[in-house]
Amino acid sequence: MPGEIVVIGGGPAGLAAAAAASDAGCRQVLLIERDRELGGILNQCVHDGFGNLIFGGSMTGPEYAHRFIREVRQRPAIAVLTGTMVLSLARDRRLTYVNRDGVREIQPGAVILAMGCRERSRFQAFIPGYRPAGVYTAGTAQRLINMEGVMPGENAVILGSGDVGLIMARRLTLEGANVLGVFEIAPRPGGLTRNVVQCLDDFQIPLFLEHTVTFIHGKKRLTGVSVAPLDRAGKPDLTRERFIACDTLILSVGLIPENELSRQAGLILDPVSRGPVVDQEMSCSVPGIYAGGNVVHVHDLVDYVSHTARLAGRGAQRFLEGRTPAGRVIMQAGENVSYIIPQSITLPVSETVDLYLRVREARRSVHLKITHQGNVLKQKIERIVRPPEMIHLALEPALLTGLSDGHTVSITVSGGEPA
Amino acid sequence: MKSTKTITCINCPLGCTVTVSPGLDGLSVSGNECKHGETYALQEYRAPQRVLTGTVRIEGAFLPRLPVKSEAPLAKELLPLAARELDRISIRAPVSCGTVIASNLAGSGINLIATRDLD
Amino acid sequence: MSKQLKDLVLELFTENDLEQYGLAVSEADGLLRLAGTVPTWELVVRAGQLAGSLPGVRSVVNEIGATSVEPAPYKAPPGDPSVIGTADIVIIGAGVVGTAIARELARYKLDIVLVEKDSDVGCGASRANNGMVHSGIVQEPNSLRSKLNVRGNAMFEELCRELDVPFKRCGLIGLVFKEEELILLDLVKARAEADGIPVEVISRERALAMEPALSPETKGAFLAPSTAMTSPYKLTIAYAENAVTNGVRLFLNTEVTAMEEKDGRVCKVITSRGSFNTRFLINAAGIYADRIAAMTGEPEFTLHPRKGELLIFDREKTNDHAAMATGLLAIGLDPHTKGGGTMFTMDGNPEWGPTAQETADREDTAVTAAGINRIIEKFNPLLPGYDPNQSLINFFAGIRAATYTEDFHIAPSSRLKGLINVAGIQSPGLVAAPAIAAMVLDLLRQEGLNMDEKEQYEPRRFAPARFKELPVDEQNSLIRSNPAYGHIICRCEQVTEAEITAALHRPVPALTLDAVKRRTRAGMGRCQGSFCLPRVLLIMSRELGIPLAQLTKSGLGSPLFSRQTKEAPPYAKEDWFHAR
C-alpha cells in the first residue's frame, strides 16, 4: 500500500511514532508488536520516574505506556497487530511478518523502525567461568520479578551500574532479597544520580567502582562470583581478586540497538551509537525507512524516546507526501563528543532541529560550541556533562540558513575540568 | 538532637554533595550550587519521602502480578514495612489503572493504586 | 617380559625427573598400576602418560595423588536395591556412544534399558565438542581411534540421513605459515594414504582461492575432503529418540551406584532409582567410565579429564571468516588435539577452538580468560580480517575422557563377565560412534548375547519441523494446521511456540531449559535468551504442568528461581539452592 506507514515495534517508540504519523495526516498506519500487548519494555518498568519532560510529573512505566496506548487506540487510522513478528525487511520496504494467521508480505509506502534495544550478555562482556543457573540480564530479571512473579534468587551481586542495574538492586531488596553489592567497571556510576541515591544509598547497598566480575562459579546453580578491582591499565588486578558467595548475578552491562532488520534493509549503521544513521526527521540512509527511539541509539529517558519517535512518525508521512531534499549537512562529533543524533541534517530546514549528543568523559564547566567553518552558530556553558546523561540542544532554522549541501557542522565540548 | 548529614542532590547531573547541619539559628545548608539543592536537601534532612512502587498478586488475569504504587510519597523509613504489606495483598481481575487497591499503607494514610489495566 | 615393562616405566620416570617421588609401579598382563604422591596434577598426568606411551601397555591405572589437588571426594548417591525391572542388557550413559549402541541393539529382539545420571541425553562431552566429523588424519596409526574414525566417517552421511540430522561434507584445509613446515603437508598426506584417507596437498593460491579470508601468510596447505560437520547434540538426541521409538527404555536422572555378580558374571545393576536384573552391561559412562569399571572391585584403567574450550560467534558477522573449511595450525602446538581450528557450526555460527587443558576435576567445564585469549591468539592469525572481540556470543567447555594410553578402551571387562567397557572415548568419538556401536555388537555376540532381528524396526527418525528453514508456502500450511507455528518465541533464532511445545513431547522429551535450547535453538542467538527465557519457561510450565518457580536450567541442583515473589524465602537465604 503506497499510502501506508508500517511501524515495527509497539513499545514507547512505536506508540509515539504511530500516533504522530496519524496526526501528520497518514490515514493508514499499521503498528506491529510481537508481544501479546502494546507497551513493550515499559510494562515491566513498574518503578516511577517516567514522563517528567513530557507530562511534567513522575509516573511509572505502565502508566506512561497507558497514556500512549490510549492515544493510539483513539486514532482510527491506526491498526494494531499484536502477537506478530516481522521476519524480514528489504531495501524496497517489502516486509514479511508472521502471526497466527500466517506469513504475509506487504510493501508499505514508508516503514518506521521502533524495535528498541537488547541487553549485552555475559558472553559479550567476556566474563569467564561456568554457565550455571542464576545469571540473568537485568531486563530479564525485571520481567521475571515484576510480570511473571518469580524471584531469580536471594543473594545477588549486580554487575554494571546502568539504570536498569540500579533499579533492579532496589526491586530485589524490596522483594526481600539481599543485594550484596553493585560492581561497576567505570570510575563513575553508569546510571542517573537519582537512581544511585534512591536505589542504592537508600538501602545501604555498596557500590564498587572500577571493579569487575572475573569469574562465575557454580556447576549447576551459581555459588558465587570472583570480583577484582581494575589496575592502572584498566585490567582486572587478579592479585586483589576476592570471592563473594551469592546465588544470583544480575548483569547490566550495556544495551545495543536491535539491528537485525536495520542490517537486512541495508541501512548504514553508526559504529559509535550502534544504530542506523538518521537525519533530523529520523530518516535512515534508505529512502522511506525511518527510525525512532532506542533502535537509533540508547536513550537515558523515555521522554526522549517518545520525542524522536514522533519525529520519525511525522517524517515518514512527509516522505509519503513527497519530500524533496536540497542537500545534506554532516554533523561532526568534535572534542569530547562521542556521537550526535542526527548524524546529518537534510536541507532545507523549516523546523527546529533537535540534537542529542553524548560526551566521552565527564567534565565540569564546559564550553559547548556548534560551529560551521569557524563561525559559532550556537554556544552554551554546561555546568556538568556526563556520558550517561544525554545532552539535548535545539537548533533554530534561522541558525542554519547559511548552510548548503556538503557543509559540515562541528560540535565540541571543550574546557572545564574533570568531574 | 539531629546531627549533620550529607545528602546527594538528585535534581540534576551535577549531583551536588550538600551538607545540612543544625545550628543555633536553625539549619545551615552548604555545598549546593543552586536553590533546588537547598530545597531538596532540607526535605531530605527533615523528612525524606519516596513513592513506593511494586506489585501485588492478582487472580484471574493473564499475568500473576499487578503493578502498583503509593498514590503519594511515603516517609522513607516506611518503605520496608509497606513492601511487606504488598506481599499480603491479592486482588481479582479485572483492574483498571488508578484503581485504589489498599488504603492507609503502613499506617501512612496513603492509598495504594494500580498502575495499569489488567484483565 | 612383565618385569621388563615395569622396569621400562621406572627408567622413563628417572629420565623425566620423577624418580625423586618414589612412585610405586606394578604390572600384570599389560595393565600398569601406578601409586604414590607428587606435588602437582601436571606430574600425575605426566607419570600416567609416560607409562601409557610404552608399547605393550594395555591400560594404565594411575592412583598417584597430587598434594596440590584436594582429592575430589567421590560421592556415590545412595543406591536403591529394590528391583524395578529386568533387561537383557543395560547400557550406562546416554551420550553419543551409549545412544548409538542402544539404537543399534534395538534392531534385535532384546529388552534394552539405557540409564543416564543427567536430566537429558548427551549432557557430557557429546554436547560440548565442535561437531567435527574427522577424516582420521593425524590419528595414531593402527590405533583403535584411527580405525574406528575412518570406519565411522564412511558410515556418517548415511547415518545422518536416516536420523534426519544436519550433516555437511565441508572438507578441511590445513595450512602452514612457514616454508620449513611445508614438509608437514607431505607427511600428513603420506600417513593419511596409509590409512586410506583421501588427502591432497594444495598450493597456497588454491587455498586462498577456496578461502579468500585465509591469511596471506599461508605458505601451503592440504585439503582433506572427507572431513565433515554435524550437530553433536542433535545426533545424540536423534539416536536416543530413534532408540526409544524402537523400544529402548530410557531412564534419566538415574545414576548407577553398584553392580552385583553371580559366579563371576554380572547379574544386577543398582541405580539411584532402583535395580535391574541383567546379564549384560555396557559401560559407556564417559568421563566416569573408569569408576563404573572399578565397581567390579578392581580398577581396569584410569581416565584423566582434558578440557576443551570453544568460542561461538554471531552468525551475522561472518565477513572475513573462512567460508567453509577448518583451519589447522602446524601440528605439534597442542600435542593432544589435532590443533583445533576455525569452523562453522551447522547453524552457521563461526566456532573456534578447542583448547586442550589437563584438569583434575571431571566437571571442570569452566571457560577461563586464559583459554579465551589462547583461542583468539591461536586462530585469529588464520583469519586476520576477522574481529572476534566484536562478535563473540557464547563459549563453553567440554571434558575429554582420555585414557593414559590415549586410545579408546573398548573391551570386555577382564574382571567380570557380561560387562563391556566402552571407555576413553575422546575425539574422534563423535565420528567413531557408529563404528563403536558396530564393534560393541560384535563383542556382545562373542560374549554370547543372542541377537535375533525384530520384524519391526524403524531405522528412520524425523527431525521436528523447523519453521525458519521452510519456504513460505510450507510455513503457511504449518500455521494452518497449528497456529502456534505463527507465534515466534525466540526472536534471534525465530523459534516458534509450536516448536518449543513439540520439543516437550518428543520420544525423549525436553525437561529443562537447556534441553529445550538444544532441541529448538531458543536462546542460542545473539541475545542468549534475554528475550525468550521467560516466554520459553511459561510454555514449559504450561505443557509440563510444573510451576514456573520450580523449573530448572539443567536438572537437579539448577533451579532457575528461589520462590515466587510475595512468598517468604523457602529456606534460609544462604542455602536455598543447596536445599533442593
Describe this structure in words.
The complex is a heterotrimer of chains A (419), B (119) and C (580). In chain A, helix 1 runs parallel beside helix 7 and helix 3 runs parallel beside helix 4. Helix content of chain A is 19%, strand content 34%. In chain A, strands 22, 24, 26, 27, 29 and 30 form a six-stranded mixed beta sheet that branches. In chain A, strands 5-2-1-9-21 form a five-stranded parallel beta sheet, covered by helices on one side. Chain A has a five-stranded parallel beta sheet with strand order 11-19-13-14-15. Chain A is of the alpha/beta class and 419 residues long. In chain A, a hairpin with a 6-residue loop joins strand 16 and strand 17. Chain A is globular and about 60 Å long. Chain B is built from two helices and ten strands, in the order E-E-E-H-E-E-E-E-H-E-E-E. In chain B, strands 8-5-6-10-9 form a five-stranded mixed beta sheet. The longest helix of chain B is centred in the middle third of the chain and has 12 residues. The termini of chain B are far apart. Chain B is of the alpha+beta class and 119 residues long. By secondary structure, chain C is of the alpha+beta class. In chain C, the strands form seven sheets. Chain C has a six-stranded mixed beta sheet. In chain C, strands 18, 19, 20, 21 and 22 form a five-stranded antiparallel beta sheet that branches. The C terminus of chain C is likely disordered. Classes of the chains: A alpha/beta (419), B alpha+beta (119), C alpha+beta (580).
Give the structural class of chain C: alpha+beta
Low-confidence stretches of chain C: 330-337, 576-580
Given the structure, what is the number of helices of chain C? Answer: 15
Profile the largest sheet of chain A.
6 strands, mixed
Number of strands of chain C: 27
Mean pLDDT of chain C: 92
Tell me the overall shape of chain A: globular
Unreliably modeled segments of chain A: none
